[in-house]
Amino acid sequence: MEGTGRAARYRDVFANGEFRALWLAELVSSAGDQVARVALSVLVYVRTQSAALTAFTFALTFLPALLGPLLAGLADRYPRREVMIVCDLSRGAVMTVMALPFVPLWAMFPLIFVAQLLSSPSNAARGALLADVLAGDMLTVGQGLRQIVGQIAQVGGFAVGGFLTTLLTPYGSLAVNAASFFVSAAVLFVGVRHRPAANSDAKSISLLESTRRGARLVFADRQLRTLIWIIWMIGLPVTADGLAVPFASRISADPTAGSWLLAASPVGAIIGAFLITKLQPAVRLKLMAPLAGLSGLPLVLCVWQSNLIVACVLFALSGAAASYMVVAPATFIQRSPQATRGQVVGLMTSGYIASQGVCLALGGVVADRLGPGGALGVAGAVALVLGAVLTVAWQRVNLAEVSHGPAGTAA
User: Fold this and answer.
1) Same domain flag for 76 and 42
2) Is residue 200 a part of any domain in this protein?
3) Residue of 383, 376, 385, 387 lying closest to 305 (CA atoms)
4) Which end is more exposed in the chain, N or C (fewer Cβ atoms within 10 Å of the end residue's Cβ)?
5) % helix, strand, coil for the chain, step of 5
6) Which residues touch 185 (CB under 8 Å, ≥6 apart)?
7) Range of the domain at 216
């Protein structure tokens, strides 16, 4: 752990009661979100028979991230636990309205947008608060547990969502999601202690100015700037998720092939997250940027692949390499200033959510011209090149830090 060079253990992290509360609250709300995505897709398609509107509904879960940095500063101006609780209660209320059968379909779209927009200050507050709850390498291991939870929630949430939507109707599933937010708020209220606002003086400036200052702080600091680009490039390997079904249809006649490919990436990510947290902290930092680039290599190999089993292995390997996201966000959070941590973490989080939406959209456009295999190859090649550039940049940053000491802004 911190100062020893030894990797923290899962039991060290789980021994922290506040982390357990944050982890459980995120698990509950994340699983509820996946259930809601299935329910909304089914609801919109059943009521409109439009694949375009169904896809647009799914895209609305990404688009609000573009405005996320504007609200991230709330996590510094107000107590972070309270920001998360208020956001959960608000999202629960929005989902409750959406679960009413008489709500017209056109009203669903702004409600989805609002619900997703409210996740931005909540995510910023959670990321910043995690650094107050866990110190040193325990933060990285805690981030690894969050990564594993997110992937399990993605796979399990979609499966349970399909079952619940059949059993309870889409409206019943939306009500389950609303309840998940209320449960999450209750867990945070009981399990996380109150802390004062990190920077209440920031209330004197506008949210727009706060966003501008946060972005300037990040991009003026070599460490934070390099780290945020490493984090934001996660959209490139995630492109595989959006192309899994059309790619599977090209290489296999099995109607379940797409499901196998969709499951392969998160399974690989879970294994990768488990393994990377077992490495020494110094080794993780050295591997972080190279793994980001290597996440693209299996996608390049997909260009010449026509065997479903091998394709599943390649998707899993890409997901495993993408487990660098266990290390990169935790490192970014640790090296960001405590007083403005909510703002800069919000910028980081919103950016990597938005990058996934942008890369998924561009992947679809490229697939129309080059086919799904060609689009996977393009995404993988860009990841390889960008990863190589950022590996060199990260090595130079660390050499400069050894020569001159840590950057002041990252203290």
Assistant:
1) yes
2) no
3) 376
4) C
5) 85, 0, 15
6) 25, 84, 85, 88, 89, 92
7) 207-404
Whether 19 and 108 share a structural domain: yes
What is the residue whose two structure tokens read 């680039």? Answer: 293
Rounded-to-integer distance, Cα 363 and Cα 148, Å: 25
Q: Do residues 303 and 182 share a domain?
A: no
> What would the two tokens of residue 259 be?
């499901």
In 3D, which of 55, 37, 47 has the Cα closest to residue 174?
Answer: 37
